[in-house]
Amino acid sequence: MVKMNNRSYISALFSVIILLFLSSCSKEVKKEDMTLSELSQNAVAALENKKRDKAIEYLEAIMYRFPDHPQIAQYKILLAEQYFKNGRYAESQELYDHYNQFYPSDQRSEYAKYKSILAMYNQTLRNDCDSTETEKTILLCHEYLQNTTYARYQKDVFDIQNSCENKLIDKEIYVFNFYLKRGEVAASRNRLTFLKEKYAEKHPELMPRLLYLECKLAKREKNETIIVKNLDLLKQKYPTSQYTTMAKGLAIKKDYFFF
């Protein structure tokens, strides 16, 4: 047997490693060259290994390269799920909504609509910020609740719609207080009128709060008649409400303006 010295051994081993490396590189297939089956297998493997970002890359490649494939729907909703889990709500909402619109007879259509609502709801902001996403969420909820074939998520959707409407109510009251603090009485009154017309009938629990807000406005205008009138209504209809107590404070402290 021929013995190799250390230097020759290391040199030979290095050559083998280089060959193995080059061989593996030559076998690596880029996503652009993978078949749908290969992309799908890689996406599943990535998900099993909890590598969601990598799975998203493969699923996005499927969306881009095979948009007309007969099975594209299943990849579309799978990608929407991964976007949602990653907090990419705008992208997931768009895919869920697209799925619901293009596959209305699919058994997952109702689920897609529900997840579309959740994804939009997760984009809603604070009361003093833009309310576009909140209004869009309400519209999506309305569409769901108007569909007589949908039933599974009705309670959740109704609760989400109610929550969004309360967000808009709180924003209107925030704006009311903002104008009132600046002494813009007409603008404050417009906000109250809008609240009454838009929400009072559907949200009867809002009435004591509206009566109290009217008292605040009357206090600014030094109109004690309105304060007394509303306070009487509050005592009669809502004796235990916090807004009745707060309105009493306005009536008692004539020189104090409550914020």
What does this protein structure show overall?
The chain has 259 residues and is mainly α. The chain has helices spanning 6-27, 36-48, 52-65, 72-85, 89-102, 109-121, 132-146, 154-181, 185-200, 207-221, 224-237, 242-252. Among the domains are: 31-103, Alpha Horseshoe (Serine Threonine Protein Phosphatase 5, Tetratricopeptide repeat), CATH 1.25.40; 203-259. 73% of the residues lie in helices and 0% in strands. Helix 2 (36-48) runs antiparallel to helix 3, helix 6 runs antiparallel to helix 7 and helix 10 runs antiparallel to helix 11. The longest helix is centred in the middle third of the chain and has 28 residues, at 154-181. The protein is elongated, with a radius of gyration of 31 Å. The protein starts with 5 loop residues before the first helix and ends in a 7-residue tail after the last helix. The model is unreliable at 16-26 and 255-259 (pLDDT under 50).
Search tags:
73% helix; elongated; mainly alpha; 259 residues; disordered C terminus; Serine Threonine Protein Phosphatase 5, Tetratricopeptide repeat
Count of individual helical segments: 12
The H-and-E topology, N to C, reads as: HHHHHHHHHHHH
Overall form: elongated
Stretches with pLDDT under 50, minimum 5 residues: 16-26, 255-259
CATH secondary-structure class of the domain at 31-103: Mainly Alpha
What is the CA-atom radius of gyration, in angstroms? Answer: 31 Å
Q: Strand fraction band? A: under 5%
> How far apart are the first and last residues' alpha carbons, in Å?
97 Å
Looking at CATH, which topology of the domain at 31-103 would you report?
Answer: Serine Threonine Protein Phosphatase 5, Tetratricopeptide repeat
Proper CATH architecture of the domain at 31-103: Alpha Horseshoe
Overall pLDDT metric: 87
Helix proportion:
over 70%
How is the biggest beta sheet arranged? none
According to DSSP, the number of beta strands is: 0
Structural class: mainly alpha
